[in-house]
Amino acid sequence: MKTVAVIVHWGPHRPTVELARWLDGSPVIAQVAVVANDRSDRPDHLPASVAWILPPRDLGLGGGFRLASHGYPAAQAYLLIGNHVRIPDLALRACLDLLAGTNIGVVAPTLVDNDGRRSGPARLSPVLAAPKARRPPGDRPLEADWVAGTIMFVKADCLRRIPLDGRYYLGFEDVDFCYRVRDAGWSVVVSPHRAQRIGSTTVPRHGDAYYGVRNRLWFARVRGWRARAALIALATAVVVLPRAVALDMLLGHGTRTSALVLHGLLDGLSMLPPPGEARDDEPRAAHWTSWP
């Protein structure tokens, strides 16, 4: 199965280069493509065979993946992987073998973090939050509602029919994608083979205060879940926002976190942008906080 690996890059080059070099040496990966969302220059020590793609602007995770996949239409499968994830060759092959199944559209390995905690299939709560402790698969693959875009293998035919929605920019594009994949009759599967999360993403953590609210509301509205959208908005207004205000006061941050939550709520309830690409003003969170 001809597989193209895509790394959506933002931040320091070193982890991206290390991952790209390893994937480039794998016999089961036909091509490695890096989408430099930060529009940084190609590192001198990146293998010549690895593509370094400069998008016209920061397209986010979904948009960056869409851009790279369009550049390699002959692929049979794609691997979307974060630069803070490492996957052994055995797990790489096992996931691709699973993806070859007739009705399987998306496969992910079991993610293990630095503390040894494993994540597996999880159902979202009524306010669309994932449980902190997901149930890891045993010794066989399990179907899941969704898998994280941190690392996912996608069948090319599935991706051609169901592209990632880039308007989310950061967060919930993976959940939205997996739900639409399942709506179309494909299976989303988690393998018991493991991948290791070796660090954290370079995206600022406080950006989650904005995108975690906005994109959760967008996803509920896209799905037509009016009651859930109302519940999320209510929970944000009466629980999340007051807690953010208290945290800002305690830490002396001014209104950094609370402003992000408030604007996430307002944007999440405003007119939905059309599906496809990220808004021209992304990252929106940079309007109310520092962004690297």
Automatic annotation (TrEMBL):
Q: Which pathway is it part of?
A: Cell wall biogenesis; cell wall polysaccharide biosynthesis
Q: Does the keyword Glycosyltransferase apply?
A: yes
Residues of the region (Disordered) are 273-292
Q: Which GO terms describe its molecular function?
A: glycosyltransferase activity
Organism of provenance: Frankia casuarinae (strain DSM 45818 / CECT 9043 / HFP020203 / CcI3)
| Chain segments annotated as transmembrane | none
As for family, the record states:
Belongs to the glycosyltransferase 2 family.
Q: Which UniProt keywords apply?
A: Glycosyltransferase, Transferase
Show the taxonomic lineage: Bacteria, Bacillati, Actinomycetota, Actinomycetes, Frankiales
Signal peptide (residue range): none
The record, for SUPFAM superfamilies, names: Nucleotide-diphospho-sugar transferases
Work out whether the entry's keyword set contains Glycosyltransferase.
Answer: yes
Q: What is this protein called?
A: Glycosyltransferases-like
- Which branch of life, at top level? Bacteria
Which InterPro entries does the annotation name?
Nucleotide-diphossugar_trans (IPR029044)
